[in-house]
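DATA CLASS: polypeptide
GOAL: derive structure tokens

***
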Amino acid sequence: MTTATTSVPGYLPNDRPDIGKLILLGLQHVVTMFPATILVALLCGFHPSTVLFGAGISTIVALVLSRQNIGKFIPLFYGSSFSYIASYLGIAQAMGHTVKFGVPAPDEVITVLQAGIVGTGLLNIAVGFLIKAVGKAALDKVLPPVVTGSVACVIGIGLSKAALDMSFIVVPGYWGIAFATLLVTVGCSYLLQGKGFIGMLPILLGAVFGYVLTLTVAPGQISFAGVAAAPVIAAPHLTFPSFSGPLVVTAIFSISIMAIATIPESTAHLYQISLYVDRLAEEQGREKYKLDQYIGYNLIYDGVGDTIHGLLGATAGTNYGENNSLMAITRNYSGPAIMAAGVICILLAFVGKLSAFVGTIPVFVSGGLALYLFGVIGMQGIALMQENKVDMFDPLTLAVGATIMVVGIGGNIGFEGGFLPVKIPGVFPNGLPAIATAAVLGIVMNMVFRAIRPKL
């Protein structure tokens, strides 16, 4: 590893800052990823310390593998993905457990979810090797933008009921705080954009506002008894995946198929960071990294990370656009700095009082954040289709997108647990998972009709 000596400020992926800067830059990465990664854990019944532990390990492993295999760090941070939330909540409900914000689910629920997370890891690895062998163009025929974009829309909009429940139903009477949190978060996101580091923390700022507002007008909704009782140092709560039980196949199918949404997201992030890295290299008069040619490797590393998370008891992940934006703003693309962030995450996972503290965030405050975050997931699906200039006047494209949305959204909101009333004993005893079924239906419909049209 080298240290940048050029007069143009910034660090390329293989540059290693001095130790003091390394720690600060790593801490900044952690601050950036922390709110979203922890929020997924709180929303879905995972242990926050385990999720932090998994994020740190998977990030470090991906960096080490990229350095070893291609001689360059691919500077990406791996945190919790929102794309899997609906699947987690549906499986938990099917197992008779209602997830409560900030309260870890029983181990028997988490271990079944882990089977699905391992499944999505293996699927990502397989797709990564496939892309290395045949190229991305072949994959785009199976997963065109109308499919990936529609699935992303379904995931976000399908979670709308959960966001409203957190804001209105779970703890009734505090919807005003939820909406105040929403407005402040949106305000920070819009008004602080491009204002430096603080402009990258709208979710954190919104959460802090909602928390302080609750302490001011409804202090009885926050108790620090759990924080006082929690040990200062505590090992992360590790569990191992269960591949037995009536809902394991359902979990594997409904969770792993969500990689349909995360694969294009991960690819877009790699393209984005490659563009900025090469621009900095050009300005510094150094050799370009051309990271965008390593799409297959990137997905393999995504899969390795999810497999690690599934084996530990953490949420399925993705490389974070938030951290990409941070790097673009600071011109710090140092792989060692991201590795330092991974180490900091691992250390934080052993701070027992931290997990207890994040558990004091009121559910209606998180509801206000979810109203924004879940909607953004859906809007990003629309943005993906716009960016790829999807032809909405093509009848088959229109039909594929429409079918995915109706089956996915209608099924997830309209039926208990998000399961379609098509039960297959021993495989899908509670019914077909609506979002996963919609995704597969869209893929098959697109492939079949595209294949037979030339013969007509």
Notes: The chain has a mean pLDDT of 87.
